[in-house]
Amino acid sequence: MDVLIGREPQKRTLDAALSSNCAELIAVYGRRRVGKTFLIRQHLEQQLRFELTGMHGAPLSQQLANFALALGRV
User: Is residue 2 assigned to a domain?
Assistant: First the structure.
């Protein structure tokens, strides 16, 4: 099993959004293969209800179709 080490500032940001009384949206972005998805999956594993990863270079219509399909599985 992999363990999440470090990333304290990012974990604080996620925790603040999670405990907020307002609707929150966090866009996680950065270079490829630095652990963005791993960070979210590990740190929020008990709270994660919906997940979607976009496709690089895909047209908007395809991105929206994939989003609609993923929502249908929730």
Answer: no
3-state secondary structure of 65: helix
Count structural domains, the chain.
1
Mean pLDDT of the 42-49 span: 89
Furthest CA-CA distance within the chain: 37
The alpha carbon dihedral of 36, 42, 48, 52 has a sign of positive
Determine how many CB atoms are found less than 10 A away from the CB of residue 16: 11
Q: Return the structure tokens found at 72.
A: 């249908």
In a domain, 38, yes or no: yes
Q: Which domain holds residue 19?
A: 8-72
Kindly state whether residue 64 falls inside one of the protein's structural domains: yes
Question: What's the pLDDT band for 64 if we cut at 50, 70, 90?
Answer: very high
pTM for the predicted model, two decimal places? 0.68
